[in-house]
Amino acid sequence: MYRILVRKELAPKIKLFEVSAPEIAEKARSGQFIILIIGKTGERIPLTIAGYDRKKGTISFAFNEVGKTTKQLGLMKEGECIDTITGPLGNASEIRNFGKVLCVGGGVMIAPMFLQVQALKEAGNKVTTIIGARIKDLLFFEDEMKAHSDKLYVATDDGSKGYKGLNFLEEILAKEKFDHCVAMGPFVMMKNVCEKTKPFGITTIVTLTPIMVDGMGMCGVCRVTVGGKMKFACVDGPEFDGHAVDFDGLIKRQKLFLPEERLSSLLWEKLGGCSFGGK
Amino acid sequence: MAESKPKPKIQKEAVSIPKQKPQERRQNFNEVSLGYSEEQALAEANRCLQCPKPQCIQGCPVEIEIPAFIKLIREGKFEEAVKKLKEKNSLPAICGRVCPQEEQCQKFCVVGKVGDPVSIGRLERFVADWERAKGVKVSDNTSSTDKKVAIIGAGPAGLTAAADLAKLGHKIVIFEALHLPGGVLVYGIPEFRLPKSIVRAEVDYIEKLGAELKLGYLIGRTHTIPELLKERGFDAVFIGTGAGLPAFMGVPGENLGGIYSANEFLIRVNLMKSYAFPAYDTPIRIGKHVVVIGGGNVAMDSARSALRLGAEEVCIVYRRSREELPARKEEVENAEEEGILCKFLAAPTKFIGDEKGWVKAMECICMELGPPDESGRRRPVPVKGSEFVMDADTVIVAIGRTPNPIIQSTTEGLAVTRWGTIVTDENGKTSLDGVYAGGDIVTGEATVISAMGAGKKAAKAIHEYLTKKQQSIAS
Questions:
Q1: Between the CA of residue A119 and those of A112, A125, A153, B354, what are the distances in Å?
Q2: What is the ipTM of this complex?
Q3: Residues on chain B touching A87 (C-beta within 8 angstroms)
Q4: What is the pTM of this model?
Q5: Are B149 and B170 spatial neighbours (Cβ–Cβ below 8 Å)?
């Protein structure tokens, strides 16, 4: 059992939990993820690690309340326990002094991006960070990012705060030279970033946590085409060279179970937020 | 019950086992085979010749004293029969159901030369079920050593090694990566062939023997093997992590929706119980025309599960002919009785998708059998220009698995073959001192019982290693 020690609302429907998980905390590194299950009838969902404290024995992760599991999770309170957390899974990010690094974090993935920004900064990099969201209310960690980055840009899809969309990225790239880029966010955003960095030849690392079941190299549902080859995000990733990733294939695969996910979520809400069988 | 004397003339036909009727069972996930009644078990046990030099034992990877346990059944001494079985096999209820006995013990049965061999597996299952119905007793473990062994993977190899080592008094911790114990017995083999309550009961038994079970621990990530040995106080490690990543064919369209690896499909259905979606959260979608590619037991399990999930038509596509099917004959028969179709000598060349990115058809090419390949089976050769298209809105790819790379890549000095399996000697010893391995991670995909046999051998070797270590410290 993994006790929730801190429950923070980062933005509407985006929460960050810090949970007690000493053995995972001991090994966790930026870029890795966990698999989480609620109850006896729950599904296994991957969430990227957004922080860890080896001394306190805690890890943290953020989630967007979009499906049944994340909505259920959002209702949990400090002191309550999550049934299963397995991790840290996947390969850790490559953290070294690249020189000048561009970090782009979007949506809920701003949270794990913050961990990566800190690690890259600590490794001696000059870090320029961009955080983005659909609308200004969904932005978070602006101050934290500012404190750990050499430069911070803010963008929203609707332009309600900062730049409108990511087109300004082209101007930045034309003006400044970057040695490395890291993008964490929705597939569409990462694809967009990759398209913009590619002409400049900047290695761009993306984090892929598509649909997973076991998350440890058994089921193959997280398969993605990278450089024309089939890769499994859970064991070969979750980080890949973004310029080689087939994002269109990935975006299609992410929607495979959309009707079922909606049904599951709707039924749960209509039945007053109670769990079926299990629990 | 008085001992019933063996009849002078042996009944040529085995006592048939009651099964759910095909029309009924294709609608549910309940066990197909219902097991022998006491009368049926006694009648079948009476077919055993009690050979002075029994041939059957050589076919058993764990060397059960088969005639001895059958004799005890014959005498109505079921309790003792179970005890006899458990001397060699800690998981008889499972083996009695999923062992390919026709390839093992029963293949050597002398009665088999004149009629059906004695149904050793069904008898094993009968006594194991009898014991479970009555309540399993565990004899008190008196001896205890101060040695600690980590077992990685709670599948057939790991559970067997754990049981044997626990009985010898060692402290056992089983690390299982998934949230339920059993390995392939829970995520792979479907409920209708092996009810999960039976696996649970067998795991309970091993816990009662003193083994500690830690779920959700992926060794190689949460802890590594060097850490277990150096920092966490373990004296030896057994790796029984099983078969890993699913293999795909590398033909166009494999990433379309509706194409599952057999591993994904079976994990969703068995482990995550998606047949009960939305009561269970994990979804599965089954179309009208399901195609399963491959001819092994995993293919049969996938096909029969798809049928139970409501597919209108399920067709197995296999690139060789019926004679080469690697699946158990009994399972092929069960599948065909349920209405599963088989298309032999064909292999997919591409998958065709609809506008939403879901598979709707599969293009295949016909095969003919050429000369035997390195596996000894005749190699399938494509027939030029023989392509055809078949409807397929769900495809399950059951063509095998390759070893999971996580342990190998996080354990320095562990020798690995070029296929990624772990190198061991005949007793399961790896290239590292105190580290043993067995089951699919060593042999590549094989059977439950061969994994158990490997677990057993390794347990013996680990015990000897620990004893020697103890002596060298003492002297």
A1: 11, 9, 19, 44
A2: 0.92
A3: 218, 221-222
A4: 0.91
A5: yes
